[in-house]
Design brief:
The chain has 616 residues and is mostly helical. Helix content is 63%, strand content 0%. The chain is built from 31 helices and no strands. The protein has helices at residues 2-30, 34-43, 60-66, 70-79, 95-101, 106-115, 128-134, 138-147, 150-153, 160-171, 174-183, 198-205, 218-226, 243-252, 256-268, 270-292, 299-315, 318-327, 333-336, 344-350, 354-358, 366-370, 380-384, 390-393, 399-415, 419-422, 432-439, 441-474, 493-520, 532-563, 573-603. Helix 4 (70-79) runs parallel beside helix 6 and helix 28 packs parallel to helix 30 (532-563). The radius of gyration is 36 Å and the shape is flat.
């Protein structure tokens, strides 16, 4: 036993000594000190195969590639056989994968690949090219993609190809995804590690091919309209080594003209618009490619398409849905009948996707779709009576407006239902209207509380303005004449302006207070949230805004009247007027957006009245 203990102690000391020795080499590589590293390697010939880190299992070449020590990588590659480059660390990463993940330096990758090109195909499912894109090294990824053999990316070779395609969508490299699908269209239906087919991933990450320009300012809309659509044609040279280009830029530098042009393009938004337009052009090409590969389908592919169509309904991708169905009329059955992935109109109504819902109006089998019965004997009308997902409700500010939106949605679905379906009872014996009231009881209570809190707060402000402006009418600027009792400045034009503004503020604030009182005394039924309560809130906020504005104007007019004959104090007008505009500006910034949103939500229901699309 004593001998065994002594042997064990010797081994522990030897391991500790080896650890200290490899730490010297690790530090030399980190410090980019090849001279010290070479001295250590010459003294310890076996250290190149040793693990410099017991935790990660990294060799000297792994460490040099990780920290981007290009010179040391080149020296180490000369000292080792080509098979050494295929040696994995504890996580299964070769030196090339380590370089792709951490440093992202193309010269490092070029040196390793020149020594052993087989390392491009090592890694399951994360090839070096996919690892580069995953870690944000786009140039490295493009370089590796130009060299990676296509055979490695074929679906029959497992997950590397689908994983790379998925990562291209994640990282926004749609040009790489488009080129890969052109070269290997069978990847469309190949599952990745999740497992999820690429055609489903496309729905998630593919932007709409046509931009909603209303989201852009006037200048950017104009730029987008007149910017030439970029070409999406790719060649072998599109993804070649960017090493020479980057070195050339460093050697030559940017001249003043290039510098100014680049900054002008950035400032004007031209680069952003060009990139956006290129991305949408690539999205359109990918969608065209998808449609071209939907001609002949087996059962497995149909199931994948059914999943993609259902995801499109959930995400509101109407364009994808229409294009896919039009590419193969046989796929209309996936829309007409329920299937294991769910029905698109069921999904669209559940997730409040107005664009997909609008497709029902142009659907030739509209009656069949609207009369579908789902689990628990729920019709589409019952589905509309369910509470919207939190992700959809949170887009609308205020529980009252959320309740209004739910009612609007419910009414729109009702407009496409047959009269018989409107009274259909589910397994719980509830009609859609009864089902709506039960599901929205809590939201109705929250909406009532939100309305009352808003009305109470605003009515306090309105009441204060009423008091102030009523008193101002009897304490006019300059006072009254002691003999006649008329105001001293009665003949002044500015005094008449003051009286008009005072009266407007008083009447507006009184109207506001009475309107908010009407909100506080409302019944708060579900129907009240559709028009009655929002309309009252619009009137109350509008008149309150008018009363505040006219009150500040009346105050400014009073100051001008009092100081107009004092030429030495005429300079006080501007500061007073500017300070008087502060409360009005604050109210506009804080409350006016809410007023606009309420008006838009109540009277601007454009989402439900879009152009009707015709199905095949």
């Amino acid at each position: 036993m004593e001998q065994a203990a002594a042997t064990g102690g010797t081994e522990m000391r030897r391991e500790a000594e080896e650890g200290l020795e490899t730490a010297i080499l690790y530090k030399a590589i980190c410090d980019n000190n090849w001279l010290a590293a070479k001295v250590f390697i010459d003294a310890h010939p076996g250290c190149l195969n040793a693990e410099l880190s017991a935790k990660t299992g990294e060799t000297a070449l792994h460490v040099a590639a990780k920290f981007g020590r290009v010179g040391i990588v080149e020296e180490l590659v000369r000292l080792v056989p080509s098979e050494y480059l295929e040696m994995p660390d504890a996580r299964g990463h070769t030196p090339l994968i380590t370089a792709a993940m951490h440093s992202g330096l193309i010269p490092t990758a070029a040196c390793l690949i020149q020594k052993n090109s087989n390392v491009l195909a090592i890694g399951n499912p994360w090839l070096p090219v996919a690892s580069a894109f995953r870690n944000g090294h786009s140039q490295m990824g493009r370089y590796l993609y130009s060299l990676t053999p296509l055979r490695v990316l074929k679906p029959e070779n497992g997950l590397p190809g689908p994983t790379l395609l998925t990562q291209c969508f994640f990282s926004g490299n749609l040009d790489i995804a488009l080129d890969l699908l052109r070269r290997c269209p069978e990847l469309l239906f190949a599952p990745d590690a999740k497992p999820m087919a690429a055609i489903v991933r496309i729905v998630f990450f593919l932007p709409q091919s046509s931009l909603n320009t209303s989201q852009l300012g006037f200048w950017k809309r104009w730029l987008y309209h007149y910017t030439k659509t970029p070409s999406t044609t790719t060649t072998e040279h599109s993804f070649v080594d960017m090493k020479n280009e980057s070195e050339s830029n460093k050697a030559q530098g940017l001249n003043l003209l290039q510098f100014l042009t680049s900054h002008i393009c950035n400032f004007s938004g031209m680069k952003e618009i060009y990139k956006m337009k290129l991305q949408h052009a690539q999205a359109a090409e990918i969608l065209n490619l998808v449609c071209e590969n939907l001609k002949f389908l087996d059962l497995n592919k149909k199931n994948k398409i059914a999943e993609a169509i259902n995801v499109a309904a959930r995400e509101g991708k109407a364009e994808f849905l229409l294009r896919v169905v039009k590419s193969n009329p046989e796929l209309i059955s996936l829309v007409t009948f329920p299937h294991p992935e769910g029905h698109i109109f069921f999904t669209a109504i559940s997730y409040r996707q107005a664009e997909i819902f609008n497709l029902i109006r142009g659907f030739r089998f509209r009656n069949a779709a609207s009369s579908l019965i789902f689990p628990n004997s729920n019709t589409l009308f019952h589905v509309a009576a369910m509470l919207a997902p939190a992700s959809q409700l949170n887009r609308i500010s205020g529980a009252a407006l959320q309740m209004q939106r739910e009612l609007q949605w419910f009414k729109e679905v009702e407009s496409v239902m047959d009269p018989g379906n409107r009274l259909f009872q589910n397994n719980e014996g509830l009609t859609p209207v009864e089902y709506f009231k039960i599901n929205h009881k809590e939201l109705r209570n929250e909406g009532e509380k939100w309305m009352k809190d808003t009305a109470s707060s605003c009515s306090v402000v309105g009441a204060l303005i009423v008091t102030i402006m009523f008193a101002a009418a009897f304490t006019v600027p300059g006072g009254n004449d002691q003999n006649s009792g008329y105001p001293m400045f009665l003949k002044e034009k500015l005094f008449k302006v003051f009286l008009i503004l005072d009266a407007l503020s008083l009447f507006a604030s009184t109207t506001s207070v009475l309107t908010f009182l009407g909100i506080l005394t409302s019944r708060y039924t579900e129907e009240d949230f559709l028009y009655s309560l929002p309309t009252k809130l619009i009137i109350g906020l509008s008149t309150l805004f008018l009363s505040i504005a006219t009150m500040m104007m009346a105050f400014s007019t009073t100051i001008i009247i009092m100081l107009q004959h004092q030429s030495s104090r005429a300079g006080a007008f501007l500061p007073v007027i500017m300070l008087a505009s502060v409360p009005v500006t604050l109210f506009v910034l804080l409350q006016f957006p809410l007023l606009v949103e309420i008006i838009s939500s109540t009277y601007g229901r454009g989402n439900f009245n879009k152009k009707v699309e015709k199905w095949p």
